[in-house]
DNA sequence: GGGGCGGATGTAAACGTTTTCACGGCCAAA
DNA sequence: TTTGGCCGTGAAAACGTTTACATCCGCCCC
């Protein structure tokens, strides 16, 4: 009987034990779908992912997962959705199976604008471009992160700083470009078109971009790559061309992938707390379901941190903390510096 | 009407369009739970994960996810389950929400033996210890992989080869130890207790193990670490002690984590096709559901590959393929060699 | 012209829960 | 003694689908 299982009503002690015995002997387990049908809640949040999720997304998923478990929810994942139609089809498939939806789709053009829940299903946009007023959102502070690290390069004395950009339609890439430009303007430096190179977030595209950058008349003394993979490719191209990093050209990336600290020289980058993104997305959904989706929408921006290492030059920049005593360069993660 | 949506019966063209119009105008979306209830299928597989899933597990999940999508299934994940009680509680929570279950729990002691589905729910054990006859299983060929790479070290002329082992209760660790011993015995070498060091799969434990190994009277000339993290820690301890890798001591790991190829010297290891594990687990579940769980059980072993790089010594071992022309050491993954 | 048949559609049962309602005791208060 | 409320329990409705069944109509064939 449901009353003993859920403590939903007072029940006599003798019948309680009688029911419990029966439950045990029949190996009875309540049926989730049937319960969801009448209860109108599933204790499950849906997650819609882009095609290829690498390190970053799997960290986000971990954050989602941990926070979901903490709040007593499960996760129903559905991946490989690059365009709006696919996302909508996935949303349709999840109707009646989830209490809320986290959509991660950084490549979606104006994705948030067109997304519409079937009824009043709570939806949180994770790392999507549009701050859609009807939907919650959690995003990385790409602008701030890019701006900080470019400012850091500027503080090293660099005046000609190039950027290797990400895909045009990717919102992260667009925002990092904005941050780059903002940092230049803050320092009174001109934005030069020949120093803004296209890229596709792949190592190869970083390599190609750096090579084409070497052909510019007045070469840059520093390169900001919009992600770490491209930074790694760029460094390969530079060293191949006989240039030393960071002595001849400084390099900085974005994402702070784990590999970065093991490279020689170790890669300066912008660290984004990926799992925090996931947990904050879940927090949004929990809050939304508690208010039956009648709540004021939130647009959260999670702060990045500078991960200053060796590819951006000697450490004349004031450090927040001294270098930790370490056993070897191999397993000595560079201390991370908070963005001011 | 369900007939037009599912094409389950012939329906007149005019009524079909009439229904379709209504569906569109009412923004109607079928309710998953209700459908599952009557259909007795959910198009969803459950995945039960251990607490902290790193690189390896997130790759497995990707494999699961891709294969599931390919077969028209979703994934319901539930993590943080280190003991049997927790796993069973998770299984209970999934009753009626999934058509099958993939359980990954390498730390479970004899886990498979006690696991029992509520009804006849298809279950596949992923990387668990016991080959339980009533349940399908997909596991890494830890024994074969360890045996291969230790044999490789032996082929380099090493006679005293140490192992840094993983946690006692971890089945991967136990099997890798077995493979290590088998390789030694195949080569007529004695198994020495002082060369088998405990570890916990962490970088620190590898560091500690290598340090204690240096105190042995007749030190080893090669170290096989049961995973890459410990290998990295061990290398740190060796270089700190003034020993050169691989000249003084050769080192090999297991897992082939991406960082390995970026280290200097790059880390020799055993590559396990993590995402294949996931897709084969899904294949098992699909096969099981198609046969209503009345099928002969499978116990699949996925083969590993040797990833021979620089920490195990000069390449006098016959290579299957020549070194690929590469731009730089940074982005030149060492070609992977198939296990014979 | 009637019976049978097949295509199209309406109807009702079923899935396994939760929740609401009603009922029967029982005790306290009037 | 009657009335009202409370506790415990059984019965029934509801959730939103699918499926099996029944109905109806038009048609062909005997």
Write out key terms for the chains shown:
homodimer, 340 residues, alpha/beta, 6-stranded parallel sheet, 4-stranded parallel sheet, 11 helices, 38% helix, disordered C terminus, DNA-binding
Amino- and carboxy-terminal Cα gap of chain A: 58 Å
| Low-pLDDT windows of residues of chain A | 316-340
* Strands of chain A, count: 13
| Overall geometric form of chain A | elongated
Major sheet details of chain A: 6 strands, parallel
Level of helix content of chain A? 25-40%
Going by helix content, strand content and strand pairing, the class of chain A is alpha/beta
User: Greatest contact pair?
Assistant: A-B, 53 and 54 residues
Rg result of chain A: 25 Å
Oligomer: homodimer
Determine the number of helices of chain A (DSSP H or I, runs of at least 4 residues).
11
- What is the average of the pLDDT values of chain A? 85
- Lateral strand order in the biggest sheet of chain A: 2-1-3-4-5-11
The portion of residues forming beta strands of chain A comes to 5-15%
Please trace the helix and strand order of chain A, writing H or E for each element: HHHEHEHEHEEHEHEHEHEEHEEE
Polypeptide structure, described:
2 copies of one chain form a homodimer. In chain A, α9 (203-214) packs across α10 (228-240). The longest helix of chain A has 17 residues, at 274-290. Residues 316-340 of chain A have low confidence and may be disordered. A 6-stranded parallel beta sheet of chain A has the order 2-1-3-4-5-11, with helices on both faces. In chain A, β3 (100-104), α6 (111-114) and β4 (123-126) form a beta-alpha-beta unit. The radius of gyration of chain A is 25 Å and the shape is elongated. Chain A has 11 helices and 13 strands. Chain A has 340 residues and is an alpha/beta fold. At the A-B interface, α3, α4, β2, α5 and α10 of A face α3, α4, β2, α5 and α10 of B. β2 of chain A pairs antiparallel with β2 (74-78) of chain B, so a sheet runs across the interface. Chain A binds a DNA duplex (30 and 30 nucleotides) through residues 1-3, 6, 8-12, 15, 30-40, 96.
